[in-house]
Amino acid sequence: MKANKHDSCIEQISHGAELSMGLRRKLSLASERLNEAVEIEEIQSIGVMCRETLIELIDYVYDSDSFDGEEKFKKSDVKNRGELVINKYITGSENAELRKNMKNLLNGVWDYSNIITHSSSKTKHEASICLTITVALVSSFENLLNKYFDPIAGLKCKECGSRRLIVAENDETEDLLIICENCQHGFIKE
Fold first, then answer.
1. If we measure between CA atoms, which residue out of 170, 166, 164 comes closest to residue 182?
2. Helices (H), the chain
3. CA distances, 32 to each of 90, 113, 123, 132, 134 (Å)
């Protein structure tokens, strides 16, 4: 398999985030197909692959148990299911801008992949943009999950203010013992 600029883009954008194997496979396959795309149907297929990736992405992060009592959406309702996910994982007034921008990115990528899928006038260049922003959205969700599940995300040392923190073993309780690598101060995460 020949590496191309989109495979490199997938690696660069997703640096530090662990993409699910299925999502990475779909993005790589779309990248390979984009290299060969000439005819309009081949270009449209990139839009289809990006849409399928977005559906799988939201399915990957959407935990239906967490949304009991919410309206039931179709699996392909990426916008509404995605909004629920974003609201769940990005909480608080300090994250209002991030929440808004993630929703805008999700909606924009979904809309643009639909445009590529149904257009008879788009070129390989627009399909490349579609794939690139799809990769960026997938990586953004992966980083969002990493932040949400990181026990020290947003914390800083109570003594010196450093963010160079590690989670240490705590033999006394199940609470997380956080140690500052800068000043060695330890504290229990509240």
1. 164
2. 5-13, 21-36, 40-61, 78-89, 96-118, 124-149
3. 34, 17, 16, 13, 15
Most confident by average pLDDT, 15-19, 79-83, 167-171: 79-83
Pairwise CA distance, residues 63 & 84, whole Å: 10
- State both tokens at 95: 């994250």
151 Cβ neighbours under 8 A, 6+ residues apart: 167, 176, 189
Tell the residue number behind the tokens 């922003």, with chain if given: 133
DSSP string, 40-93: HHHHHHHHHHHHHHHHHHHHHH--GGGGTTSPP--TT-HHHHHHHHHHHHS-SG
* N-term to C-term CA, the chain: 49
pTM of the predicted structure, to 2 decimals: 0.81
